[in-house]
User: Fold this.
Amino acid sequence: MPSGWKYLSASAACTEASASSLTVDLMRPEVTTGAPAEGPVPPPTPDPDVEADLPQITMLTEPADGIPAVVETPEALAAVVAAFGAGTGPVAVDAERASGYRYGQRTYLVQLRREGAGTALIDPIAVPDLSSLSEALVGVEWVLHAASQDLPGLAEQGLRPSRVFDTELGARLLGLDRVGLAAVVADALGLGLAKEHSAVDWSTRPLPSEWLRYAALDVEVLVELREVLAERLAVAGKAEWAAQEFEAVRTAPVPPPRVEPWRRVSGLHAIRDARRLAVVRELWLTRDQNARTRDISPGRVLPDHAIVAAAQALPRSVPELTALPAFAGKGTRRRAALWQAAVDRGLATPDADLPSVRGPKSDAPPPPRAWAEKDPAAAARLVAAREVVVALSATHEVPAENLLQPDLLRRLCWTPPATLDVEGISGFLRAGGARPWQIGLVAQPLADAFEALPRD
Assistant:
């Protein structure tokens, strides 16, 4: 273990845990016990045979260099830029958002660590333009976990990497069962990371010291983790696969705005007529505008289940609306007139402007459950293709969804190329964004499977 790390062994962690709580080994299935009628809960009796088979996990409790001061001024940022530009090796990068608290996916804290520079915690609200840091790191590999989640928000602050190593993607390609950061760190390094602050409101100011400790620890061992995973990938013959995946994540385009985003309301399947869908649409649009103005997560302004409840009941007045159990909360009732006005607009929508019950037109294939009736040949291709991908997934110990995107596989089977030979399949997959390593693995087996299908 590198010197300077402060840690707590798993056994010591259990000793220090509260008597009223249950400490669970990071690599062991959760154990629950019924609480006795009175008295303290006795500790479980350890099984020596089981304990011998479990990896020893050492909990990281403090960053090696302590908790750095949060960078909040241009002068402090300039010092960080100079330090990280002079550092060596890859740079570990992480970002924290306020999902579920604020509107959108804005970044509220950026964490970095590099050999020779230490750790930096940057407040992108106080210093929003971080392009100078990005320029100082041109050509440097960035190590992130689940990079696709962080890169869009980092780009908004002017942070764009030249190269990426994604430890979550690396873990997936290695076939690890659990690919969250804490689980991968435990598997690869034998270290434990606490995750109790992962879902807090990172827009809070000032940030509590415990949260800052958590944030610093998230980048503490990312570079060390990268080294272990890179070696494993090389041994498994998957280093080139990983390189192609990392580059695909780094260069992924920003997805276009979703058509009719209100259709993502949870529980919408319960609404089956156009008039009620119009009410859902108006409530969603009103909620979205209110949430955007107040910078609050839409679900905190008005829950999805309340939108569905109003669309089902079609209240004609504020008292009728607030009589619904879904509108019993104080915040919801406080804006009851706003929500009722949205319901009224939905009820008054002209027939010609009512939303389609079937949804917007799309070039996406229909749900697979409908294929057997709509296109039996396509259904047969999909069954055969899925069998191929599942078999290859098991052989190469790569999740099926990482071997080939499920949507691309469905499109191949629903609207196939003119020829379903290796060349035709390869061209189709390449145009759909599949990487060379994926095409090299699946094209021939898919062609063989399609060739074996009965002809009409």
